[in-house]
Amino acid sequence: IFLDIDGVMFDWDYILSKPKKGGLIQDFNPESVKALNKLMSDLSTEYRPELVITSTWRSDMFAVYRAFRDNGVTMSRSIHITSIRQGGDSSKRGEAIFDYLGGTTKDRNFVIIDDESFDFDKYFDKSSIIKTEMFHGSLNTKMVDNYLESIGIEPSEDTM
């Protein structure tokens, strides 16, 4: 699971509904946390899902671990990161993911969750992307269920 954070784990509708704390946004939308945990759990029926952080947050993994812990993100395996390219050029996020995959998508099981497309169309089929929206469309269980169904996995019932 290649995971962006801003626009995926929260959107502006959610953030603007919260009291202002200043600094780095650390409150994730509970629905987004539920959806990510569901995706990891449901994928575990067929695969060994791992999180790979593609977000600019990957430059401070301490903040990532703290935010995941504080917001209830299940961290049953180690978390990886894509390479941090010189200059932090996020427009090459697709290239960084493609490199992480060893330069091929053949026989690779992966999903990219992001609110932006960057250079993704150059490397990936749309069916391997869950597209969220920064302003009012962070990750939710409907998006996860639709993705799971598209790859032939029966989504589990929501228990929360």
Description:
There is one protein chain. The chain is α/β, with parallel strands linked by helices. It is built from six helices and five strands; from the N terminus they run E-H-H-E-H-E-H-E-H-E-H. It has helices spanning 12-16, 30-43, 61-71, 93-100, 120-123, 141-150; strands at residues 2-3, 51-53, 79-81, 112-114, 129-131. A five-stranded parallel beta sheet has the order 3-2-1-4-5, covered by helices on one side. Strand 2, helix 3 (61-71) and strand 3 (79-81) form a beta-alpha-beta unit. It is globular and about 45 Å long. It starts with a strand and ends in a 10-residue tail after the last helix. 32% of the residues are buried.
> How are the strands of the biggest sheet laid out side by side?
3-2-1-4-5
Work out the helicity level: 25-40%
- Gross morphology is globular
Q: What's the assembly state of these chains? A: single chain
* Counted beta strands: 5
Sketch the major β-sheet: 5 strands, parallel
Distance between the termini: 22 Å
* Overall mean confidence score, pLDDT: 91
Can you give keywords for this protein?
160 residues; alpha/beta; 5-stranded parallel β-sheet; 6 helices; 5 strands
Topology (SSEs and partners):
Layout: E1 2-3, H1 12-16, H2 30-43, E2 51-53, H3 61-71, E3 79-81, H4 93-100, E4 112-114, H5 120-123, E5 129-131, H6 141-150
Parallel strand pairs: 1-2, 1-4, 2-3, 4-5
Helix pairs in contact: 2-6
